[in-house]
Design goal:
A five-stranded parallel beta sheet has the order 1-7-6-3-2. Strands 4-5 form a two-stranded antiparallel sheet. It has eleven helices and seven strands. It is 43% helix and 11% strand. The two termini are 21 Å apart. It holds the Pfam family NAPRTase.
Length: 271
């Protein structure tokens, strides 16, 4: 930046301070992109064959970051940067931002109905399975996500999703109607927890589990798993590597990232 007016010698610094703010969306987009590359690599290595929308990587890293940033402006700008790489976002500010400044006629990102801990625990321990059934009943078609670690995630996957509610889950795909349950663990070591959950689900739904061309197990299309805790550019490849070694395809997984995606970075992150 060059100022040619000696009367306004201070102008370059003022404008530079504003201009240099682009480090934030650039860093978010690069961080997001790095995770996309990791996911794409894992999908390739475990036999994925479908790459067009909505398959492939486009919905594999969901933006949970609105609550994890310092302002609504940060959510809007950072969330928009993430949408350069992925199509999944719960950050409404980013959708409004891209619609306004890019004059889009429709949203740049998409989401699905999802429960949170309060909507499950309010039913009590004995009512957890009923709370889960309520989610499936309230959203009988399309995709729905349900947090499953309110009390015991392994019991929930084996006894509830894999037994008492199994027929409802399988029934989400009938004729021309497509539906999918996305099971969400939200605590414990991400790699170990996801591995154990996939073992349980692959056992409970074994009649519909398939093996990819690379010999990895893939859950039936009506059920998947989303890891939304402890997800960042370092943990994603570790989780996927662990699952690959255990014989599970990367396409079993979706990830959600919040503060680590939009807030756990600064101007020195990429120097």
């Amino acid at each position: 930046m060059v100022n040619t007016d000696p009367k306004c010698f201070w102008l370059t610094n003022f404008l530079e301070t504003l201009l240099v703010q682009v480090w934030y969306p650039m860093t978010v987009a690069t961080n997001s992109r790095y995770q996309k590359i990791s996911i794409h690599k894992a999908l390739e290595e475990t036999g994925n064959t479908e790459w067009g929308i909505p398959s492939g990587t486009c919905f594999k890293l969901h933006d949970f970051g609105f609550r994890g940033v310092s302002s609504v402006e940060s959510a809007a700008v950072g969330g928009a940067a993430h949408l350069v790489n992925f199509l999944g976002s719960d950050t409404v500010a980013a959708l409004l931002c891209t619609k306004k400044y890019y004059h889009a006629k429709r949203a740049a990102g998409f989401s699905i109905p999802a429960s949170e801990h309060s909507t499950i625990t309010s039913w009590g321990v004995d009512g957890e399975v009923d709370a889960m059934k309520n989610m499936l009943t309230s959203y009988p078609t399309g995709l729905v996500a349900c947090v499953s670690d309110s009390f015991d995630v392994f019991k929930a996957c084996k006894d509830y999703w894999g037994d008492k509610l199994k027929d409802m889950i399988k029934g989400r795909i009938t004729g021309d109607s497509f539906g999918r349950l996305v099971v969400r663990p939200d605590s414990g070591d991400p790699a170990d927890t996801c591995k154990e959950i996939l073992k349980i689900l692959c056992t409970q739904f074994k009649e519909d589990v398939v093996t990819t061309k690379t010999g990895h197990k893939l859950l039936p299309p009506y059920i998947r798993v989303i890891q939304g805790d402890g997800v960042d550019y370092e943990s994603v490849p570790k989780i996927l590597k662990s699952l690959k070694s255990a014989g599970f395809a990367a396409d079993n997984m979706v990830f959600g990232s919040g503060g680590a995606l939009l807030q756990k970075l600064n101007r020195d992150t990429f120097k």
